């Protein structure tokens, strides 16, 4: 018996592309849409700290890009704003769901975004001044602590330990804040 797409159950599959641009969220579709290939799909994105679900059409078998304007975080010039550009997207835990039509075909992922936090970490690395000075072991130890918190938070998300991930992420941010104020760091 030959299989055709009408005999197969759709498999919704996507992942978040890791990019360093803190203004953009990219979602890559890897789904096997089967018999719903020609029907519309949507993506629902819940931003960190929000309960509001942002719903957008989802382009199948493509990379979908989201930014502060299409996620309703700031407005676009024709709407009455002047000089608006893409803003940084917030760091933290995102809930992302892709739904086919009918929406019984869906998948939800949790994603921990750390772009802005990593930019702050970049500043800590640059502050080491490796090309000019000997390594400041104290500053390096602070970087390692933040890196460890972030890595553990990301690992926790992958393992479905969402509460732990949020706690670890907030610990990383808090430690960085202390370092900026030079209080509590080594």
Alpha-beta classification: alpha+beta
> What form results from the Cα inertia axes?
elongated
Report the order of strands and helices: EEEEEEEHHH
Beta-strand residue fraction: 15-25%
Q: State the low-pLDDT regions, or none.
A: none
Task: Classify the fold: give the CATH topology of the largest domain.
Answer: Immunoglobulin-like
Total of domains? 2
Rg calc? 20 Å
Tell me the number of helical segments per DSSP (H or I, 4 or more residues long): 3
Helix content: 25-40%
Query: What is the terminal separation in angstroms?
Result: 68 Å
- E-strand count: 7
CATH superfamily (homologous) name of the largest domain = Immunoglobulins
CATH secondary-structure class of the largest domain: Mainly Beta
Kindly report the spatial arrangement of strands forming the biggest sheet.
4-3-6-7
**Average residue pLDDT:** 90
Specify the biggest β-sheet.
4 strands, antiparallel
CATH-scheme architecture of the largest domain: Sandwich
Write the layout of secondary structure elements.
Elements: E1 14-17, E2 24-29, E3 42-46, E4 53-57, E5 63-67, E6 92-99, E7 106-113, H1 115-127, H2 137-158, H3 162-180
Antiparallel strand pairs: 1-2, 2-5, 3-4, 3-6, 6-7
Helix pairs in contact: 1-2, 2-3
What is shown here, in short?
The chain has helices at residues 115-127, 137-158, 162-180; strands at residues 14-17, 24-29, 42-46, 53-57, 63-67, 92-99, 106-113.
Structure description:
This protein is of the alpha+beta class. The protein folds into 2 domains: 14-113, Immunoglobulin-like (Sandwich), CATH 2.60.40.10; 115-180. It contains 3 helices and 7 strands, in the order βββββββααα. The chain has helices at residues 115-127, 137-158, 162-180, and strands spanning 14-17, 24-29, 42-46, 53-57, 63-67, 92-99, 106-113. A hairpin with a 6-residue loop joins strand 6 (92-99) and strand 7. The longest helix is centred in the C-terminal third of the chain and has 22 residues, at 137-158. The mean pLDDT is 90.
């Amino acid at each position: 018996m030959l299989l055709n797409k009408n005999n197969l159950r759709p498999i919704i599959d996507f992942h978040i592309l890791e990019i360093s641009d803190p203004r953009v969220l990219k979602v890559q579709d890897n789904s096997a849409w089967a018999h719903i290939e020609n029907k519309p799909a949507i993506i629902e994105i819940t931003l960190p700290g929000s309960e509001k679900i942002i719903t957008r059409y989802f382009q199948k078998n493509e990379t979908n890009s989201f930014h502060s304007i299409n996620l309703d975080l700031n407005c676009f010039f024709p709407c009455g704003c002047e000089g608006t550009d893409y803003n940084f997207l917030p760091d933290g835990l995102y809930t992302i769901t892709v739904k086919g039509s009918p929406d019984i075909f869906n998948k939800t992922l949790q994603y921990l975004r750390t772009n802005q936090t990593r930019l702050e970490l970049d500043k800590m690395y640059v502050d080491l001044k490796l090309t000019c000075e000997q390594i400041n072991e104290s500053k390096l130890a602070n970087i390692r602590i933040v890196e460890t918190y972030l890595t553990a938070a990301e690992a926790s998300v992958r393992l479905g330990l969402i509460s732990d991930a949020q706690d670890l992420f907030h610990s990383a941010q808090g430690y960085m804040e202390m370092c900026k104020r030079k209080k509590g760091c080594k």
